[in-house]
Amino acid sequence: MTKSPQRPLNPTLWRTGRALAGRTRIRLFRELVANPGSSVSELADAVHIGQSDASQELRRLQSRGLLQRRRAGPKVVYRPVPDPQVYSAEPLLEALFRCMAKPASADEDILRIAQGAAHDHRIRLIRHLLPHPLRTEDLRNRTQLPVSTLKRHLNMLEECRWVRRQGALWEIRSSSHPLAQTLLRLIR
Question: Would you say the pTM of this structure is higher than 0.85?
Answer without folding.
Answer: yes
